[in-house]
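Re: folding output
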Amino acid sequence: GLGPQAELERLAREGAAVRYPAGIPEEVLRRIGSELALIERLNYARYFLTVHDIVKFARSKGILCQGRGSAANSVICFCIGITEVGPDRIDALFERFISEKRNEPPDIDVDFEHERRDEVIAYIYEKYSAKRTALAAAVISYRGRSALREVAKAMGLSEDVRSALSSTIWGWSTSELGEREANAGGLDRADPLSRQVLERANEIIGFPRHLSQHVGGFVITRDRLDEVVPIVKTAMEERKMVEWDKDDLDAVKILKVDVLALGMLTCLKRALTLLTHHYPQARDKYGRPHQLSSLPPEDPRVYDMICRADTLGVFQIESRAQMSMLPRLQPREFYDLVIEVAIVRPGPIQGDMVHPYLRRRQGKEQAEYPKPELKEILGKTLGVPLFQEQAMKIAIVAGGFQPGEADELRRAMATFKRTGTIGNYRQRMIDGMVDKGYQKEFAERCFKQIEGFGEYGFPESHAASFALLVYASCWFKTFYPDVFCAAILNSQPMGFYQPAQLVRDARDHGVEVREVDINHSVWDCRLEEARFDPSRILERHASMRGVIETAHAVRLGFRQIKGLSEEGMEAAVARRGDGYRSVRDVWLRSGLDVGEIERLAQADAFRSLGLDRRAALWEVRALDGRSAAEKLPLFDQPTLRLRELEPETKLPKMPLGEHVVHDYRSLGLSLKEHPVAFLRERLDRAGITPNVRLPSVRDGRRVTVAGLVLVRQRPGKGNAIFLTLEDEKAIANVIIWPRVFDRFRSIVMGARFIRVTGKLQQESDVIHIVADRIEDLTPWLSVLLQEPPTIEHQPAGSSNGPERSANRGLPVRQHVDALSGAAQQVMPKGRNFQ
């Protein structure tokens, strides 16, 4: 057969013909030749073939995958199917991927469906042998929260004190712990022990804590791995881990392939499957079922939705920071999405690149190009360097760097937070630009922007790979929100938002969502025939009424119920036949134990049997104490006939608020009512503005809002904290500046339901409340629970009936009392993001 280099050349030629069916452009041919020559000189052909083999296996099994990161700079990776964005489409820089001067293996990241990545991992072990394959390690260092918890434990502080302290600290924070954190956690700085805890915790922040498995880095060697590197067993017996991290492996030039898991790929694969099954008319231009690559590109209706920031749940642009950017940036084509993905990052923010770009995009100022050579590099981003590749090109073209030196600059950007070495290049670049005729002030400004990439700037190729998934997820949400809702619920956990918000958003777009039911649900959420009524679409989404093509309802699946297993519920579905007729029938035929049936009752999943939650729980409790022998059919156990003559029990109706609390406890969401709806009258009396009315409030006016805390986000080293609050009709976006956050830290970090007062800001249809006062209203949620009424018994002629009924009544009351009046503890705490 062919050698590795010849095989790679064959694959590249054949792949190029497929990628460019109208003819391979001359520039692409030139790049293929130059890349192949460099790969041959550096002897990397086997590496490319290995990654190609892994991707080929995944696709042969129908596993959605795509390469990203700097690999998208390579036309070879594009031609052989590793990446999906042609580097000619984004004018990528190959030196960002492979540098001859660097002489180290390239790093190819490949994302796979997160639910099926284990199949890929199993293939790697089988194909390349467990003796030659292992996961790379990652060094986990102490951050603020972990440092404080462990020092406090070592110093003898109680668990409740440790929890109170750690709950006030941002999970990813590496900042020094000081008086503000101590006060928020209830520590007395004057106390010697408290002071010592803080001092010791600050000393170990940034110290290595332990080795962990890399998220997906695989080491593959030609010889036995244990003869090359130290290895250790992992918790999974068949897997091993190299006791070196990626930097150690790079230093000794050991091949590493990143096999990563991405939830959105799982979601999109599920969406494509649902689309094919339920919408056979949705086909590509050749009449075939849609694939990711065949979704209609550049549809203006998709971009209309994006520009309105109607992006809850979609990939990458669903955060509050991204949503606030979308109406200002107004993406209208693919490259705008590339910029959108990259611009809301600490790098561009720290480098003061965001506002100049927006002003230029909105026509408020002119782009500045001191020389034509810079316009070639920065023209697409209006004179502002937003990507690492642009920084490298500026260093080469304007600063006089050689490509290898520019790559060293890029590596310094990547490791800036850990090593701070990017400053070593400052004078070199400024002098080089001045020598080429640039003003020193301009050169210094350029370097400041480049230095910002030390705070996490995106490679253009990486942003382009992600932009493909942004568009695909937005396409599904635009036209088939039923498909998108079912797919994303079946792909949880992922993204910013919890199932309650995803379901609510689907309903806001007119999708009917149906409850979990013992006779209608399966494990996954699925689509059921339904008549779509455009009038159900909320007024703020009215422009979608002629766009949405949905014709199905979403039936929630058993996966939404906490504490159930997929295996057990699939068996129950298989035994369902033409339907279960009673709770006892479920018990006899499904194979579920009483505890599992009770969880179904707690989730109100017996409505098709004519039983609401309380009645179903009553029936389930009647099963307690019966032996396995009593599961025989009734005619085999005549004595059981008497038990069917139990007294009729008139159960009081469960209050709606109690239903909602149980829904959240069992499912994490409720289709019956929103928790805040029960408080609306009280909120109105308190002068709190409903979120849905915020667009009518004048810019600059003081306003008070309230809602459940959905998301807390603190982007990088950004000063502001973004808070998303939800009431029964809409959401409110809150900005909290550091001074205010310090005053209300414990409320912001711990409360579930809050009131915020501040000044309303409105710009380009983006509305924020800049907070100056925050109050914890979590105790108000207790209104959802009502005191359970006394259960009345009506004897039906059985002598031992009343006694049994009394015994059955107790668990119902205990079940209600188990909530202990703390409805607030059932509501989600909200998710924190960096």
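--- second protein (sequence, then structure) ---
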Amino acid sequence: MKTIRTAAVIGSGVMGAGIAAHLANSGLNVLLLDIVPERLTPDDEASGKSLADRSVRNRLAGDALTRLSHASPAAFFDDSCAGRIKPGNVEDDFAALSGVDWIIEAITEKLDVKKQLLTRIEAVWSPGTVVSSNTSGISIEAMAEAIAGPMKAFFLGAHFFNPPRYMQLVELIPGSSTNEAVVAAMKTFLERRLGKGVVVAKDTPNFIANRIGTYGLLATMNIMEAGGYTVGEIDAVTGPALGRPKSATFRTLDLVGLDTFIHVANNVAERTDDAAEKLAFAVPDRLADMVRRGWLGEKSGQGFYKKVKEGGASRILELDLASMAYVPASPVRSASLDAAKTAKGAAAKVKAVLAGDDRYSALAWSIVRDMLLYAAEKVERIADSIADIDKAMRLGFNWDLGPFELWDAIGLRQSVTRMGREGRTVPGWVKNHLDGGNESFYVRQPARTFYVRSGELKELEEPPEQISLRALKAAKRTVLSSPGASLIDIGEEVACLEFHSPNNAIGADILTMIRKSVETVRNSYKGLVIANEGRNFCVGANLMLLLMEAQEEEWDEVDRIIRLFQNAMLELKRLEKPVVAAPHRMTLGGGVEVCMAADRVVAHAETYYGLVEPGVGLIPAGGGSKEMALRAAEATIDPDGDLQPALNRAFETIGLAKVSGSAPDAVRMGLMRRSDRSVMNRDLHLYEARRNVLDMELSGYIHGGPQSVKVAGRDGKALLTLGALTLLEGGRITKHDFKIASKLGHVLAGGNVPAGTAVTESYLLDLEREAFLSLCGEPKTRARMQHMLATGKPLRN
């Protein structure tokens, strides 16, 4: 198999284009091909083009590239990624396939058409090139019949989930002739280069995730009809209460598209010889009727839900399946759902809802029971292990717990007993497992996890580079701990500071732990990583605490809090050992300031990063404004050059509370340095951060010491203020926005000093703190803080 540096995607529809975009995100050059159009568009005719023009012949792939560039959510990490995709067509550019390292088929889900394409590919195939199909359920073995020669050993299924950038799962499906080394190499490539979670599935209809997930959705609809439940009731039960996304059942179907879902369901029904399974995958009449009416979900404007505007406001109606009319949604409440809402963690939520005795608890049990029994019945047919099924459902359907993890959570023996009382048939291997004295499918130890496979416990293999803070804490590797943070020994003489406060918001407890961790690392470790395993790295400082002090006008206390934050960041920055911050997902405000204090940032590629304090009426005052002033000076190549362009950029980035769309985008925005790194695979994130600490230590890390910097001074400040005034007069910002911007400009420019004056970090921190305290005294700032805490959204006042 070749080293993959280039790829071609054939088919520029939603999936093909999305896959091409993510390959470009990973640094690959991609050829995107589609068929040649048969007719001109009105725009083509108006431009005097003919069917022979290359732009016309490449139109489908070219239009797909345009759509990708404007997609929401964004398909590309940043705008530069689009330049790695070259649009073409399958007539003029087909021979170019001989020069790529990976060919991906992503055309229509019709076996005969796919086989014809594979025959064409084989004619230009070069040895060692991997050829894969993105089919969601067609037999790989049936497709491989079209391949006569050695290409068959390099052909397999590689099924991405939509959208390819954001959905972590890829199912690899080898055929009987696929070389095992190719499967192993592709698994490694997908995990390391594309950041995917990979499961190897068997060549059965719909593979793993769509097989289990589709069954579960259809079973839920049948239970709904039998029990007389509404659309809203089903979604209230099948979302977070069962450890699943908020989109639950029917919002998920609307997002997928009801016509697409029916196609997936029919794929199993048509390919199975099992009468019971044919019945289970039969499409409900109501669903078929909706598709006949053109009610396909979000893409058609209505499905199980419909958004309407009334009196200038939007509201969501839900479909009453009895009358097929859209009606206002009614609140769904019960004791079991309330218990699930207050429970901590997915396992506790599911146990809480199942422990109730109301109709929603009964509904939840019926849905869970049927899904568990189906997964247990199919385990050996669709996958090599229960662990692969669990992983597929977590990554492909965003469940918090896979079927067998969920079964363990609710109690394996108790639930099987209940199933037996209800006359349900439990697969023999599950009964045998219990008869052997086992109480769960998984046995978890501090450093190892075992799972049942073929009647025996097998160790769950994980990459040696996968470092789990949870496992390390279970193995008693915690060095320091407090309610909000812990310092953990992660091996190789490196420590990790983990935040674990609510939302990982930074308060006095975490700031104290930062200072203690600095001292411990100084004396006992080679360096420090700052990372955590929360949903988001850090959403900022503890806004509630700050608001309470501001409302009480406890200005000395506010000043003390800000000094504590600033001093903690300075101590972090001045530690004589290398410090690496490893942010992921939402990293806002104070979270960015923590990263800016590190020597290097090793971010997960999906990091959304910004100094958003103006949204709550403030400016960054934990060193963020100071660091942006320093970086503006660093960006000026000539020490005596013009600071203003870089300063304007920093002013706009903070003033408009911009948030990056990815880690590479944060570099483009100037929020991260070009020397900072990004990692595609979240599971390998901590390992890469630790490796960067060790690399810096090994190369002779030298601490830079306190910095001084030349600032733009009063002249630069005047230009920044003028820019803000232009926005105010144009109605693009409010008067309070202007006040915030003026204070931000004062700090970034270094205050009222002559241009070119060299100032210290401490001087800039004093300016930060003074501006912050002044804004805390503004009623409109406090209103913004209250609104953010109440709604999670910024207030423009």
